Amino acid sequence: MKSIQILDAKHHVGETVQIGAWIANKRSSGKIAFLQLRDGTAYFQGIVVKSEVGEDVFQLAKNLSQETAVLITGEIREDSRSKFGYEIGISGIEVVGESHDYPITPKEHGTDFLMDHRHLWLRSSKQHAIMQVRSEIIRATYEFFNQNGFIKIDPPILTGSAPEGTTDLFETNYFDQKAYLSQSGQLYMEAAAMAFGKVFSFGPTFRAEKSKTRRHLIEFWMIEPEMAFMHQEESLEVQEQYVAFLVQSVLDNCDYALDVLGRDREVLQKYTKLPFPRISYDDAVELLQKNGFDDIQWGDDFGSPHETFIANSFDQPVFILNYPKAIKPFYMKPHPTREDVVICADMIAPEGYGEIIGGSERAIDHEYVLEQIKAHGLDENEYSWYLDLRKYGSVPHTGFGLGLERTVTWLSGIEHVRESIPFPRLLNRIYP
């Protein structure tokens, strides 16, 4: 007998097949039992009719408990009443693994309870859909960069210095010296770009910020491209093309997940229209001040309410260009006509999801970069290899970093970033 996955049911209508699944829920009505089945690819309904299977199988179906693992035999049928469109008429059931007193029931549960049971919460239909969106974004990322001539390079996770020049680092002992969990692979990607031209990395990063906002994780994944012989405007074009590609890929390949999440496809489709709008930091501050944000002054970094208002003013992802030099890292290229700003841009997602990309053109003058390293109180010796990049064939180059989890949160339309990663690491939470 042919074994199939639920997602492939549409290809087997009228066939008798076997499916390995778990019981997500069940109900019975007289002489019919309805089993909600899941197998990791999708959910659909199995129907057990007493007169067709006999007393033993029918009673077994009625007594199956939530999350019991089973092998189901039956005929695939079309089901116009469900969004999935198919069901299975069950003729046989074999229990593979019993489940008793499953803690996550169809009733409401508090966030702390669900987070404590994250290893089980992942089985729910909403969490399943979010992970499908995440997986598609990862797949599409590799497709986009491979199609556009990038080479994947893996920067180290253990580093001896801080790319962002902050103290929010996880420190560890590296034999007889200090080391840190990486907060960004960017500096190493600059070295890679000088060797390969166009590169990207995709890996875990860590920030020891004691933040509890809905946008922050302690451990998260970053996509960090770096491009030699490229200026900022060209980089912005790559960024908007990449994001539009991700959105379209989710629309094309996550239909079932978007249904489960209740995500409005017309809203997402707007985010594929290029180019994305651009606004300077100067004009963004003025826009905010004219609309009642008296707390913001030139030189301040934007908070969540500020970013949300700016993005909502355009109803699309928007680039904010050229932030003050004082609030940005040491490696950004200074503006050619102003000393107070650098050539950089953040992409702000609409609908209140905030910054999803940060990028800049990189400073390439050896003496300027050395001066900035000293001005930021960093150890020149720790960055000697980075300074070498400015000594041996330095060229204009630019890059950016996209936060995977923030992008998943935005495209899924969920409220909190903690649901965008399988096992979130949050302030005071490292279990499970």
UniProtKB/TrEMBL annotation:
Keyword set includes Cytoplasm: yes
Location, primary (coarse class): cytoplasm
GO CC term, one of those recorded: cytoplasm
Residues annotated as domain Aminoacyl-transfer RNA synthetases class-II family profile: 133-432
UniProt KW Cytoplasm keyword: yes
Catalytic reactions on record: tRNA(Asn) + L-asparagine + ATP = L-asparaginyl-tRNA(Asn) + AMP + diphosphate + H(+)
Keywords: Aminoacyl-tRNA synthetase, ATP-binding, Cytoplasm, Ligase, Nucleotide-binding, Protein biosynthesis
Record-listed E.C. numbers: 6.1.1.22
PROSITE patterns registered for this protein in UniProt: AA_TRNA_LIGASE_II
Alphabetical GO biological process terms: asparaginyl-tRNA aminoacylation
Record-level Gene Ontology MF annotations: asparagine-tRNA ligase activity; ATP binding; catalytic activity, acting on a protein; nucleic acid binding; transferase activity
Localization per record: Cytoplasm
NCBIfam families xrefs: asnS, PRK03932.1
Subunit and interaction comment: Homodimer.
Family statement: Belongs to the class-II aminoacyl-tRNA synthetase family.
PANTHER family associated with the record: ASPARAGINE--TRNA LIGASE, MITOCHONDRIAL-RELATED, ASPARTYL/LYSYL-TRNA SYNTHETASE
Protein name: Asparagine--tRNA ligase
Gene (UniProt): asnS
